[in-house]
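Subject: for your reference before the review

Hello V.,

The reviewers asked for a structural picture of the protein, and I figured it would be easier to keep everything in one thread rather than splitting it across files. Below is the amino acid sequence we used in the manuscript, unchanged from the supplementary table.
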Amino acid sequence: MIVLERMSNCRLNDVLDAWNHGFKGYFTDMTMTIDRFLQRMVHEGFSPEESIIAFVDGVPAGVVLNGFRQVDGKIIGYNGGTGVAPEFRRVGVARRMMEEVFRIYEEKGVDIATLEAIRDNDAAIRLYESLGYEVYDHVEFLQQQGVIEGTSNTIQKGWRFERTAPEMVRHLHFYDVKGPWQTQWQSVHNGRALIVSDTSGEIGYALFRTLYDDKGTVSTIILHQFGVKNDVEEPATLMNAILSEALQPELDCKRLVINLSNERKEKYEAIKQIGFSTMIEQVCMEKNIKERKSSLRNATSIGEI
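And here is what came back from the structure prediction:
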């Protein structure tokens, strides 16, 4: 028998078992310790009260993480991970959990439901499509190791670079407010924003985090998002300068780029040209919940269904 519980009502060990078993044999290693799992819940803004743990005959069998944000006046519901233990797959656990997710979304007044899925995970994509999700973008995790060659001199153009708090990008009219969940300023926990200006005003930005090892040496730089003003002169040169400032090319460290759209050609090529390679390819999917409900009500009222 399948029983669904809110994560906040479950023992932490059961939650971790549901996660680690749910992603066993996945396309990439998703195994977490308790500390790492709790950090992710906090850093990415997931809600234990609205996340789901599935039990089959009392055994932790599946998990869905849910988070909520308001963007441009709409409530976004984000599925930050759906996993089912191998021995309980193809018996309806995932669909039962997703049905409960939509009940939660209705309670929360969600306008748009979003998620990402590994591009090659055909079974998951088919499930989400059967539930009304549609693919709207293709994104990649990219990585680079060591010193970066070929980034530009940022001083010669007279640009001003200010390091500030991540939330300061909110007022930029060219900030990508609709990018994937993990790329947004709210997910840049303990990170920084880089805002670039010239005599006309603000013209570019980046969101990034810097991680250190036990000796206080930079070990990893994680780039969440970057962009430039639409009508800026020499956008490629400016993007290269932003990457140089944010990624510290002189350091021999690891660098990651999170969920970069490969359909944003200028940004994608700027990253590829400085030596980043693709780790994971994903599809971004969304379901416009309130518009679908409105359409269904209208169709019912005129006898269409």
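For the response letter, the relevant points are probably these. The first helix runs from residue 12 to 22. The chain is about 25% helix and 35% strand.

Happy to draft the paragraph if you're swamped.

O.
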